[in-house]
Design the sequence.
């Protein structure tokens, strides 16, 4: 059994043993980042461009545009039925008819179109988020390609930029889901 004096010296020397191990792991982490970030830059950019294309061309330009056209056609057909209806021909007043059309426009048609527009805006914000992430990653890759380490200020700036766009995306998504 060791004496109390030898046990206490063991615990005092433990931090001196751990510090070199931490430095080795920190150096390995930096080496890994130096290697991985520049190599991942082109695949990340390619993947993000693919997502951007899908969101823009499939979701925004095709799906939402088709949905908007369907909503417009539905309400145009509905209004035509009201205008051609037997009730109107039987003497409904012009004021009653106008109020019905205004109400339909404000209470049903416009809210549907506004919802589609919000989803379109969310798609554009998602594209902006992708572009911001890629841009930040490219900045880091450029720093590492020069054989340098990014400064704390540079990292904070990139994180702030990404966080700002991400928060906007989350805010819009929450508003849309309410």
Sequence:
């Amino acid at each position: 059994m060791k004496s109390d004096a030898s046990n206490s010296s063991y615990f005092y020397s433990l931090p001196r043993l751990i510090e070199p191990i931490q430095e080795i792991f920190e150096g390995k982490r930096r080496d890994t980042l130096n290697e991985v970030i520049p190599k991942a830059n082109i695949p990340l950019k390619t993947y993000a461009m693919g997502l951007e294309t899908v969101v823009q061309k499939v979701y925004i330009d095709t799906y939402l545009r088709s949905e908007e056209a369907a909503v417009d056609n539905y309400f145009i057909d509905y209004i035509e039925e009201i205008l051609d209806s037997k009730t109107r021909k039987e003497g409904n007043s012009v004021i009653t008819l106008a109020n019905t059309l205004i109400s339909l426009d404000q209470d049903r048609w416009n809210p549907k179109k506004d919802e589609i527009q919000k989803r379109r805006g969310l798609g554009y914000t998602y594209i902006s988020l992708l572009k911001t992430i890629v841009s930040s990653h490219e900045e880091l890759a450029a720093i590492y390609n020069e054989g340098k380490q990014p400064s704390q200020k540079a990292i904070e700036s990139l994180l702030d930029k990404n966080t700002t766009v991400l928060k906007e995306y989350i805010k819009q998504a929450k508003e849309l889901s309410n």
The CA atoms of residues 66 and 138 lie 36 Å apart. Helices lie at 4-84, 86-89, 94-145, 152-177.
